[in-house]
Amino acid sequence: MPTGRLPMRRLPMRRRSLLLAAAATTALPRAGAAHAAGRPRRPLVIGHRGAAGWRPEHTAASYTYAVQTGADWIEPDLVPTKDHVLVVRHENEISQTTDVAAHPEFADRRTTKTVDGRAVTGWFTEDFTLAELKTLRAVERLPRVRDRNTVFDGREEILTFQEVVDLARRLSKTYGRTVAVFPETKHPTYFRSLGLPLEPELARIVRRGRLGPRECVVQSFEPTSLRRIAEEGLGVPLWQALGTTGGPYDLVSAGDPTTYDDMMTPAGLARIARYADWIGPDKSSVLTVSADGTGVPTPLVADARAAGLRIGPYTFRAENQYLPAPLRRSATATDFGDAFAEYALHYALGVDAVVTDFPDLARIARDAG
Questions:
Q1: pLDDT per residue over 264-293, tens digit each?
Q2: Residue 313, C-beta contacts closer than 8 angstroms, at least 6 positions apart
Q3: Do the domain assignments include residue 111?
């Protein structure tokens, strides 16, 4: 893997957030022939919780807009209800993503729990039945960053994983291409300890829908969860997500000192390749951006290739505060910066996918290349 700098390809981009938001509503051409979720012919665009940059995350509107504007896959994070139904929320604590705090009938369910070794206070999906969760409505998780999305607050209900699968099927028919679901098992060790394991129910829904490798890829930060999915014999690709600090909670809680850094070494990648098909590192683990705007790659892409793994970094966002400093366009954290340049750097490096809150921008950048 070369360690020199990649030249930055600067693509045209509007400087102001409002102009870019307007451009994002422009219709995009349909994708070509459908491709297998596990064997991309060109970099895949994965809608992170849908199109979370433009709509409240994990809602039907967010997933639909993601596919309309270019996403190949859509990502639902999975957590269980009290009656063991898988629903899609970023976390099991839902005060930031729903209007639960405005429901006096649920005020006494606010509590503090220890989730993956961390104390969390709020309302938790595992304390609600599905019927109760369906009385809540989704809200924008980052209202100070994405005030534009708050106009949609209160309009959408909480979706089940089955409903997302059904939606992906409908969108596939509408747009004439395969839209894969990309579920992540959230806190699987924690939920297993509560008697609410995620993997059997996930497997049941995949089997019920007869989802194959073109339609489903399962991801987790916990290797144990992926191994359990592998034991289900579903035949769908598996994706090992990788953090930037510490190690997977299932390993940490079992006394295994393996860190994410260890997992990204050639030896660690070889171990991942025994059970998974993909790795999903933070984008900062793939390359950094120097002061002059050029990319300085790490060995990770080449090492993943050598291990027989595909690679899809996360999470690409357009706001200045999420971009490398040289790509920011103003001193205002929530203004849009040169997101197109960041996509171009990663595409030039040869990644197989990008996980993004703005699938429209990722597709424009990809197609311009």
A1: 999 999 999 999 999 999 999 999 999 999
A2: 280, 281, 282, 283, 285, 286, 346, 351, 354, 355
A3: no
Of 246, 341, 346, 344, the closest CA to residue 287 belongs to 346
Assigned domain for 153 exists: no
Q: Parallel, antiparallel, or unpaired: how do β-strands 287-289 and 111-115 relate?
A: unpaired
Residue 2 in domain: no
List of residues 6+ apart from 343 with CB closer than 8 A:
316, 354, 361, 362, 365, 366
The C-alpha atoms of residue 35 and residue 61 are separated, in whole angstroms, by 24
| 270 occurs within a structural domain | yes
Orientation of helix 161-175 relative to helix 60-68, angle to 10°: 30
Measured CA distances, 123 to 25, 95, 154, 186 (Å): 35, 6, 17, 16
Phi, psi of 349 (to 5 degrees): -75, -20
Backbone angles phi, psi at 278, to 5 degrees: -130, 155
Ramachandran category for residue 180: left, alpha or beta (phi over 0 → left; psi -120 to 50 → alpha): beta
Tokens 């006494």 belong to 108
Strands (E), 116-237: 118-122, 180-181, 184-185, 218-220
- Host domain of residue 73: 17-91+158-368
Domain holding 257: CATH number? 3.20.20.190
Chain centroid, CA 57 distance in Å? 10
The total number of structural domains that make up the chain: 1
For 16-29, how does the pLDDT look when each residue is reduced to its tens digit (9 = 90+)?
333 333 333 333 32
Q: Are 361 and 346 in contact (CB under 8 A)?
A: no
Q: Assign 131 to helix, strand or coil.
A: helix
